[in-house]
């Protein structure tokens, strides 16, 4: 393995899930990786994974909450002091708020947008001056198929990812003249902890008028997660994109059925899509008691 390639990467949300796998995969390819996480005490899984592939020497742990402007500034300035440049930013930090619109309090909506959207924008803004000064760089935004499709019970999460998609589309135009590449990675369902955490904190209870529908959403999502593919293929895609000199596309969907789902969204009339969702909800929910 080539231990160093002279390039650096900053990966947010690196303590678990996609972020952990992406940080290790980049380190394995020789990047000096700043693996950023809110709680550095959760670094053990990441370091063990890096050690297994002899990439731990290329990993450095950085304390970073993307909703904290001081920690963002410290992470970026610290990376510049240590390495003098930032070649790749992977905006992966995120969380999932689940529940039907009426059941999710405004605090939940704000928390969802604060992390998934405003935190991502803040991180992007922090590295742009660096990348402009050095003559280029790559910004990879971890979006989701939910950034293209809004499913029932995922309204807050979908809204945050739709926002990321629109922001990134504009950003790509703005920074292209400076040699900065921007792309969206749009995973479908994968075996990562984000929705397990979201399920545990799902809004809606026995008194909700959406109890039956919520049960249908949860049942379907859990079955999908149980049979979901290995998330390492997402990390491998991110590494390939980081190493390309040119990103010919803005969006890179990945995952079982994702491309088919997006194609259906482009080709089918809305009434057919809506009817299919309604049938799925009814079929999954009829055998469950309301509330």
Describe the structure.
By secondary structure, this protein is an alpha/beta fold. The protein has ten helices and seven strands. It has a seven-stranded parallel sheet with strand order 3-2-1-4-5-6-7, with helices on both faces. Helix 1 (17-28) packs across helix 8, helix 3 packs parallel to helix 4 (106-134) and helix 7 packs across helix 10. Residues 285-291 have low confidence and may be disordered.
List key phrases describing it:
Rossmann fold, 7-stranded parallel sheet, 13% strand, globular, alpha/beta, 10 helices, disordered C terminus, 291 residues
Provide a brief overview of the structure.
Helix 4 links the parallel strand 4 and strand 5. This protein is 51% helix and 13% strand.
The CATH class: Alpha Beta
For the biggest β-sheet, the strand order reads 3-2-1-4-5-6-7
Total of domains:
1
Report the structural category. Answer: alpha/beta
Task: Kindly state the percentage of residues in helix.
Answer: 40-55%
Number of strands: 7
